[in-house]
Write a sequence for this structure.
């Protein structure tokens, strides 16, 4: 089996691991990763990069044919991964299209979990404009989906709250918490990527204080060139924690080095170790610097995934 012979490439950040190596390894346990059909095509064998059972999200970018999404899902499922495709509400025309997508994913790839989100387009192309409307159709429950994840925004979202506040974001999360309580769906919040632990910790604690205790799968940008990281951060609307990258950019000695999430994850790991009830349960990687680069980094830093029991619990 390829994994038995896989030896992760060492990275410069490995030297920092004694800071919280055991804690970091625990936080990385059961991590997930996101791919797109066009990036997945470039990977010869995911089994050589990821442990069996790893949850792999498939991002559905506007304009990607559903056939490409389903083909990617089927390939990953055959290779032993837990597949979680995106269902972006604003690019789904109507309930019939949603039902068709669900049937295709189930029939060809055995999919039984999904990430529901509004999507990256400003204007809806049909009847849906938010993930809550997708959930209200009842189609996922009828199809026997076991897990539904929803989007989270630790630093807010001007797409949802144009004034820069968080009123609408919080109302949506309260609705989703209530949905989880009145249904059998296993749910979690999968977040946008961030770069600084303090705002994330404050956000997670605020949710818990307001009774929103859905497990949080915190978004993390995989290692990438600093210029690449800044470009994606601005495009995706990353807020206050962007200052971490801005400080790094001012240090000319570090401009040529890849930016790695070691500080961010170590700080979160230390906080979780000190506060076992902390609701961040998993790490979800956005491989901004490439899938292989991110997979190598997780393995080099003690990351494990593919534990079905652990994944099912959170």
């Amino acid at each position: 089996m390829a994994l038995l012979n896989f030896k992760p490439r060492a990275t410069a950040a490995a030297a920092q691991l004694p800071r919280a190596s055991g804690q970091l390894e625990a936080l990385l346990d059961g991590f997930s990763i996101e791919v797109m059909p066009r990036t997945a095509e470039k990977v010869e064998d995911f089994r050589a990069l990821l442990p069996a059972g790893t949850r792999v999200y498939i991002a559905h970018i506007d304009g990607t044919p559903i056939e490409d999404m389903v083909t990617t899902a089927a390939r990953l499922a055959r290779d032993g991964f837990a597949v979680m495709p995106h269902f972006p509400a604003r690019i789904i025309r109507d309930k019939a299209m949603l039902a068709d997508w669900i049937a295709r994913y189930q029939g060809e790839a055995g999919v039984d979990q999904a990430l529901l989100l509004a999507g990256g387009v400003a204007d809806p192309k049909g009847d849906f404009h938010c993930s809550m409307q997708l959930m209200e159709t009842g189609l996922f429950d009828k199809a026997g989906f076991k897990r539904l994840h929803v989007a989270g925004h630790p630093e807010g979202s001007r797409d949802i709250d144009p004034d820069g506040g968080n009123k609408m974001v919080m109302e949506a999360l309260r609705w989703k918490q209530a949905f989880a309580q009145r249904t059998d769906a296993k749910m979690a919040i999968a977040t946008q990527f961030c770069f600084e632990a303090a705002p994330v910790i404050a956000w997670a604690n605020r949710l818990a204080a307001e009774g929103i205790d859905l497990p949080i799968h915190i978004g993390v940008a995989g290692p990438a060139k600093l210029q690449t990281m800044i470009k994606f951060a601005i495009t995706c609307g990353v807020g206050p924690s962007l200052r971490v990258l801005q400080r790094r950019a001012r240090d000319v000695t570090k401009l040529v080095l890849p930016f790695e999430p070691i500080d961010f994850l170590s700080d979160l790991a230390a906080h979780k170790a000190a506060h076992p009830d902390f609701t961040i349960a998993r790490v979800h990687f956005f491989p901004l610097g490439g899938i292989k680069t991110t997979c190598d980094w997780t393995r080099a830093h003690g990351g494990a995934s593919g534990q079905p029991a652990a994944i099912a619990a959170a």
